[in-house]
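Allow me, if you will, to draw on your knowledge of protein folds for a short while. I have a record of one protein: its chain in single-letter code and its fold written as discrete structure tokens. Kindly check, if you would, that the fold set down in the tokens agrees with what the sequence suggests. Thank you for your consideration; the sequence and its tokens are set out here:
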Amino acid sequence: MPFWKKNGSADELSISQEPDTASLSSKATSVSSSVPKKGLVKRHTPFDAPVNPIKPPVFDLTDDQLAKYNDVLEYFEEYIKENIPVSDSSNAETHPILEEEKAWLTKECFLRYLRATKWKVEPTIKRIKDTMVWRRTFGVVTVPGHSDPRKIITPELVEAENVTGKNLIVGYDNDNRPCLYLRNGYQNTSASLRQVQHLVFMLERVIQFMPPGQDGLALLIDFKAAPAHLNLSSKFPSLSISKQVLHILQNHYPERLGRGLFTNIPWIGYTFFKLVGPFIDPYTRSKTIYDQPFENFVPKEQLDKEFNGMLDFEYIHDVYWKEMNQMAERKQALYKSNFRRLGGKIGLSEYDLRRQHEESEA
């Protein structure tokens, strides 16, 4: 799924006819660069950990910021005792807050929203509450007895979107951010709600790949066309879909983008950026870097040879998709286990939630 999207409800999107997932995945689409290079390491799956050492987070809050953080924490300590809507429908039923929703309300989560609102307490509270309902509505969180099974965002729901490897989680940047690659040239479907669901699914997955001490991601957008024999589209996403994704990123994943890198931008791409530019907040825009070598930001040990790295990465869908999801689920299981072991309360640090049990005990 290409990158930009904001505002506009899902109802505005025309749902395209979807290809059959089973028949697509069985083809085991593979893509790799053919540039020869000595000492390359063959790889078909994501990396489990970054090259650089894990470091604990440094919060470094002023007295005023700490007071505002405590105000938000105290509010949600009471809020989690309530039932909240199962969707954004005006007449939606309510349901108690789930364990996974409490585990999402971490110290870093509160701080991300506080920074996004320039440390304003009331807007922070409202945005977090809105996101909690959005996560239920969009199918990120499953509410027992209420969520429509057909709309829950699962690997099975979005798999057909990724059979060409247009979105990849591979490696970590120099600051230990997991790298999510968006490869515009490998687009294999028409604009649809499922494209948006696919991007949200991959965002959730890349968050699960974050190591202890890191709560941001590196977004690497490559506009290079796929090999001609694959007969794939390099078209830019529609403006309406782009606006919707931007809305989701800015409102429900604030402060998650640590770095955005763009490469192989065609001339029409700059026109596209001018169109979507007004919908991108200035702080997010300040994190984007255009046409600089990826090797300046990603260790060569975890970077593909196409970008002058030491990987000979080949995307084989049946191999990558299964392993990527299993790795993410193992990491999420550790996160949930740590949440319970540390008392199951909100405001825990993601650093402790992501660490291995032995490290946490030490």
Notes: The chain has two domains: 61-149+324-352, 160-314. The two ends are 41 Å apart (CA to CA). Residues 1-35 have pLDDT under 50 and may be disordered. Residues 40 and 310 are 5 Å apart (CA to CA).
